[in-house]
Amino acid sequence: MTVNDAVARRVSALLKEKGMSQYRLEQESGIQHGSMQCIMNGRNKTVTLSTVILLAKGFHISLVEFLNDDIFTSVDLEAEQ
Length: 81
Fold this sequence. Notes:
This protein is mainly α. It has one domain (about 5-70): Orthogonal Bundle (434 Repressor (Amino-terminal Domain)), CATH 1.10.260.40. Helix content is about 60%, strand content about 0%. The protein has helices at about 5-20, 20-30, 35-40, 50-60, 65.
């Protein structure tokens, strides 16, 4: 699994956990709809730290809270280059 896949899965889990829509997350984070679609559909190959910070802010959690998930500690996690 790539880092980008992990971010998309974490976003999906947090949306469900917080009862948020993707549209509301886009509004809260300032991430454009097209960019969010690319992340969620796996078309984005380079999710940046800045984007992850925006996602965390959109969920009203810290960056550490966003990354504090087993999905990011998997030994199978791959970074795309």
